[in-house]
Protein 1
Amino acid sequence: MDTKRIQLLGSYLNCLTMTETLLIIDEIIQQRIPTQHVVINASKINLMSENTDLREIINESPLINADGQSIVWAGRFLGADIPERVTGIDLFTELVKKAAVNGWRLYYFGSEEDVVRKVIDLHKKEYPDLIVAGYRNGFFDDAESKEIAKEIYESHADILFVAFSSPKKEYWIHQYKDSLNVPFMMGVGGSFDVIAGKTKRAPKWMQNIGMEWFYRLIQEPKRMFSRYLKGNTKFIIKVLKTKIRGNGELRNEK
């Protein structure tokens, strides 16, 4: 299947719709080849420009979606055909739905104990046939990681959801992906907290006009000020410099 892969602003990106992404994930699970999935947004592009290790991990990932509307707008401004956002939380939700139909085994890893339990309870209530291979909260010492990886391996999961912040989730999955025996692994950030109702997601109309970041900013101004206001300014400057250079960083990958 054509993954419509390009290079954009120092990152690879697969210019896919949600439907196309789900079809590729179905193939990945059937083939059972350990695959790390990532999403990119303005903040991730900024982190990648400063962090070589993170940039290498992301660019090694075979499947990279545009999580932020900023990526869609920037890509189109630079001449890329990015059809839509495929956000981490929306993909997470769609995969749970498909897992219930296809019999895929899910492992939930991250957030607080009561949060991850509530997410599973909500999903099981909505999808009674859902198979939960296992779960674990996200509070652990680095020394416990090998044992956690062993537990995930023994669960025979088909999909692993890792609810850490960046870049911790990218690092952890990359370090252990070859020993987990899980075909599809994705970081879902704060998605568990949203599903459980601990934090709120922006209204749909704000999501549709690309202002979801602003909703998070007004919810947590102290924590998000640097990430969004300073970070978005840095991202815009990077996009403009790329445009001035003649789209030198926009390339199709075969």
Protein 2
Amino acid sequence: MLDNMIFKQLMKHSFTIPVEVTYPNGKTEKYGNGAPQVKIKVNEKIPVKDLLRNASITLGEAYMDKKIEVSGSLQVLINSAYESANSFLNNNKFKRFLPKQSHSEESSKNDVQSHYDLGNDFYKLWLDKTMTYSCAYFEKPDDSLEEAQMNKVHHILKKLDPKPGSSLLDIGCGWGTLMLTAAREYNMNVVGITLSEEQYNAVKQRIKDEGLEDQAEVLLEDYRELDHLPFDYITSVGMFEHVGEENLDEYFNTISRYLKSNGVALIHGITRQQGGAYNGWINKYIFPGGYVPGLNENLTHIIESGMQVADIEMLRRHYQRTLEMWTDNFHKVLSEVRKMHDERFIRMWDLYLQACAASFESGNIDVIQYLISKGPSARTLPMTRDYMYKD
């Protein structure tokens, strides 16, 4: 009885939009003014002790197991919870972060492979043709996802102001679109690093297919173990979220060590402006070992590693839109996904995509590009930003 009362109070204060909640006893309550935008059906009692232990894991698992069902947009519902000062996502009584985690080379490899080695065929279903699994960059309102992903690649490379024949290291190279574009269109000599065997095999085949063996190389190894000469430029997209809070200093020190004097790096990753945080459900089911660092945290590590900041750009709204397009794509291919995975996986992945979109929409997380240099800031770059936007 007490659990039911507390859970009802939790629902009553958790959203900024009108919602309708049907409880396990069949009774329905409406919260907020106006017609419900989202309807929630609670099929089984949710123990409050589990919510207090970790609300994100408890509610995420309840949705995966159909103990909770939602009619309407998950993104709208979760964004509303982030915007409510009294929701379980903001109230300190319900916030719980996971303990410090291991990020040894072996555990990092296992973490990456658990996510990215779901299979290239799975990601091909709902990513665009570039196979780019990171925030796109929408230059025009009607940009397709593929156009926006290529916009992002060129936006990153232009920020470096790269010279033909120069060397580029791409840490966490994904399926290789950025590094191969740099080789093919910017005449750079590139090395990409990944811990995903699926990505490694795909990039290696692309290098061969595109005849770029003299300019491009992909390595299956930990970024901390690279045995190459220093590079003129370094890119790293969507990588530092995986290294762990305790290894951020090593990550930026490694970038500094791999850069030539006055070299330039573009580091692109999810960052919280409010300070670093873990998410229990994301860590357990999507990105084991994940940690989203705070803006001040990253800046401190950059400076302490002997580098300086040349430019910072926030792309929060771009990632929200990217995730919304991925969600639409995912929903369109559910019949194909069902041939690979069960319904629990599908509900998990749908929740992941929409919850992340809501998190960006609400400003709970951001994605930031850090343009940094080894030595005085932007010593080798043009004086203004105009060069970043020229064809």
